[in-house]
Amino acid sequence: MNLPTLITIARFPLLIVIVLLLYFGGAPGRFVVVPLTVLIIAMDALDGIVARRRGEETLLGSVLDIAADRAVEIIFWVVYAHIGLISMIVPITFIIRGALTDSVREVGYARGQSAHAQITNDWGHWIVAGRPMRAGYGFVKAAAFTTLALTLALETVELPLAGLAWLSAQAFSWISVLLCIVRGVPVVYEAFTWERNKV
Q: Alpha-carbon distance 197 to 199, whole Å?
């Protein structure tokens, strides 16, 4: 197992620690979740950087990276919805979109294509794999998860800044939902293209 894959897999136990702290960590644990959230998101970028620099980009690594991303985002959305900080519409949207895009991508994986290599048109490739869109989407989700963690921590100790943090978290969460839907469209569109080409 190479180093990038180890970094990816390490996100799973860290995610469990974060969830336990959110529910059972009290005020100290919830404040610790804020930097841990930044860390688990930074690890997503780190595994890709390490893979490219070491020439260790693999199809397995690509699949595991997407699986880790999906686990982190869905569990965060579900937990924060369960706690009552966001609407249940948010995790439902991400789960439905993830189920659709992951199912479509399975066809590409069976043909030996990575997720990004499956998008053949320019506009779709820019939305799904373009650096500006990926960076923007990653930033908005990171900001949402971090401000949600901060909101919960501030609410636990009843600080007035919790209201401002909550408003910021709502804005970032709904922007994330919008971008989630937009970035899913090219993947589903590509599936219909495959079907047309078979006819």
A: 5
List, for residues 60-98, the tens digit of each pLDDT value.
Answer: 777 888 889 999 999 999 999 999 999 999 999 999 998
Q: Position of tokens 């686990």?
A: 71
Cα separation, 49 vs 75, whole angstroms: 24
Half-sphere exposure of 121 (CA within 13 A, CB side): 13
pTM: predicted TM-score of the whole model, two decimal places: 0.86
Alpha helices per DSSP H over the chain: 3-24, 26-54, 59-83, 89-110, 122-129, 131-156, 162-198
- Which residue in this structure is represented by tokens 């030996």? 112
pLDDT of 45 over the 50 cut: yes
Residue range 3-198, CATH number: 1.20.120
